[in-house]
Amino acid sequence: MPILEIEGLNVCYRPERGVRISAVRDLDISLERGEFVGIVGESGSGKSTLGFAITRMLRPPAVIESGAVKFKGTNILELTGSELRNQRRGGLALVLQSGMNALNPVRSISKQLGDVLKAHSQKGEHWGRSEVRARGGELLSMVELDSEVLDRYPHELSGGMRQRVAIALALSLEPELVVFDEPTTALDVIVQASVMETIKSLQRSRGFTAILISHDMSVVLDATDRTLVMYAGRVVEDQPSKTVASAGIHHPYTEALMKCYADPRADKVELQDIGGTPPDLSIEVAGCSFAPRCSFASKVCFLETPSLVRSELIQVACHVRLPVSPMAKEVKVVRN
Ligand SMILES: Nc1ncnc2c1ncn2[C@@H]1O[C@H](COP(=O)(O)OP(=O)(O)OP(=O)(O)O)[C@@H](O)[C@H]1O
């Protein structure tokens, strides 16, 4: 059984003043145990909304309009607060972009760890000062930090150290699924690479299932087994990460994204912007959301929303690349 199954998920934001925004649309995703899956897409494509929905951390004005998020077969969207708290142990965890936001600025790291361990303690467990320090030392060493960090406050740590502490906190309850939402975006390139190495090695050694959310295609391709490309709240492509660079079939949006990133090993790099702007998610339009920016788009693309179609290991939602609609078979493909 997959560890995570998302079925027909629709999430929107309904602010008191302002328009309704449909951030995640008709999403179906399935993750096998131990997989490391990357979710990539431009700002506003719905990646974080999805990450928050998976870990049930969405707050108003976000509303889950329909769908299911099944973790080990249980729809976590139907759990009560206390059932959800019980699920956190050995369950789901979220690591956010800035370690500072995840940490309490006025409590030392050991106190914060103690808070988490006590809040989720199980029958027979006692989290006194020495137990917390022992477990804290173990967790910090897992993320390559010295145990003296236990006595520090978040403002005394560098950005990279804070992010490592946030990862240690997330792993303290031994989650089986961890969502990393832009875990290294706020860090400089060198620290970014070393924190990513730690995440990769922890994922392999501890065997948890992981989702890495990033706008950076190269980070996702380097770290993950499988890449999902999101556009305007939908998954438009699902490929094994190692074949993305060489694959013969792509969604035109993925192709455009790939042209925006530089391979640092390449002698010469030519970058192209995608052109146009992402769609206004407050307006429901027929057809493929990428069609107005797509140089291959044809009539059918403006009329029917394409669904993900499988071709061997690849899934692409595009009338032109993997046509299923009888209408799509008749259209003339326009190439630039
Ligand atoms: N609290 C909110 N209230 C209203 N709209 C929101 C809110 N949070 C996000 N949105 C909207 O939902 C859509 C998806 O946002 P989301 O943050 O999930 O995208 P993202 O791909 O994670 O972007 P980024 O990489 O910039 O974080 C966007 O149009 C965004 O403006």
CATH topology of the largest domain: Rossmann fold
Summing up helix and strand content along with how strands pair, one would put the structural category as alpha/beta
Roughly what fraction of the amino acids lie in strands? Answer: 15-25%
What percentage of residues falls in helices of 4 or more residues?
25-40%
Mean pLDDT: 89
Order of helices and strands: EEEHEEHEHHHHEHEHEEHHEEH
For the report, how would you describe the main beta sheet? Answer: 8 strands, mixed
CATH H-level name of the largest domain... which superfamily? P-loop containing nucleotide triphosphate hydrolases
Query: Ions, cofactors, ligands: which are bound?
Result: adenosine-5'-triphosphate
Count all strands and give the number: 12
What oligomeric state do these chains adopt? single chain
CATH class of the largest domain: Alpha Beta
Ends distance: 44 Å
Number of helices in the DSSP assignment: 11
Q: Which geometry do the CA atoms define? A: globular
How many structurally independent domains?
2
CATH level-two architecture of the largest domain: 3-Layer(aba) Sandwich
Main location: membrane
Family: Belongs to the ABC transporter superfamily.
Protein name: Oligopeptide transport ATP-binding protein OppD
Domain ABC transporter: 6-257
Topology:
Blueprint: E1 4-13, E2 21-31, E3 36-40, H1 47-54, E4 62-71, E5 74-75, H2 81-88, E6 92-95, H3 99-102, H4 109-119, H5 129-142, H6 159-171, E7 177-181, H7 189-206, E8 209-214, H8 217-223, E9 226-231, E10 234-240, H9 241-244, H10 252-258, E11 309-311, E12 314-316, H11 326-330
Parallel strand pairs: 3-8, 3-9, 6-7, 7-8
Antiparallel strand pairs: 1-2, 1-4, 4-5, 9-10, 10-12, 11-12
Helix pairs in contact: 4-5, 5-6, 6-7
The site of adenosine-5'-triphosphate has 15 residues, from β2 and α1.
